[in-house]
Amino acid sequence: MQAITYKRLTTTELVSIKLLWEELNQIHLTDSVYFKEHYTHFSFEERIENWLRLPEKDVLVLVVETEELLPIGYCISTIDANLKGEIDSLFVHAAFRKKGIGKALVEKSMEWLQTNQCKPIRLTVSYGHESVLGFYQQLGFYPRLTTLEWKNKEI
């Protein structure tokens, strides 16, 4: 495997992960059972709005790059005002999966969240995308709640 670098970005540099995020959004669109229209209309600019509103100290943006500075993965984690931590978004390009990159991104994020005294630390998995549950369980994340959302079938 070629050399890769993990680096922290500021929220103003989020645009560098836009193509990766769009690939993740496409996967969610494909996997979604009930809310395909959400992913069809969901834009990167909408997604990053909340991250841009948070104080920089409460957002961790980790990116993995190749030697050619090509982004191949990222993890974004946040801390809210009550010190609740969340791994908001994680993605590794398909060609680089099963090499420990996603695990390393989560572990680095967990270290940051724990250093900042976050409790609880959570993440959400979109319904239909349960194939990732085993990955997260290996890292200590387990299902606790199931959230249902009302869908207006007239729209």
Protein architecture, described:
With 155 residues, this protein is of the alpha+beta class. It has one domain (4-138): 3-Layer(aba) Sandwich (Aminopeptidase), CATH 3.40.630. Helices cover 33% and strands 22% of the residues. It has 5 helices and 5 strands. Strand 4 (85-92), helix 4 (101-115) and strand 5 form a beta-alpha-beta unit. The protein is globular and about 50 Å long. The model has no long low-confidence stretch (mean pLDDT 96).
Quick synopsis:
By secondary structure, the protein is of the alpha+beta class.
Highlighted features:
globular, 155 residues, Aminopeptidase, alpha+beta, 5 helices, 33% helix, 5-stranded mixed β-sheet
Q: Can you write the helix and strand succession as a string?
A: EHHHEEEHEH
Class by SSE composition = alpha+beta
What's the number of extended β-strand segments? 5
Residue-averaged pLDDT? 96
Unreliable residue runs:
none
Q: Determine the CATH topology.
A: Aminopeptidase
Strand residue content:
15-25%
How large is the count of helical segments?
Answer: 5
Return the domain count: 1
Q: Give the class-level CATH name.
A: Alpha Beta
Tell me the distance between the termini: 47 Å
The major β-sheet equals:
5 strands, mixed
Q: What is the overall silhouette?
A: globular
Report the CATH architecture: 3-Layer(aba) Sandwich
What is the helix fraction of residues, given as a range? 25-40%
CA radius of gyration: 16 Å
Side-by-side strand order of the widest sheet: 1-2-3-4-5
The CATH superfamily title: Gcn5-related N-acetyltransferase (GNAT)
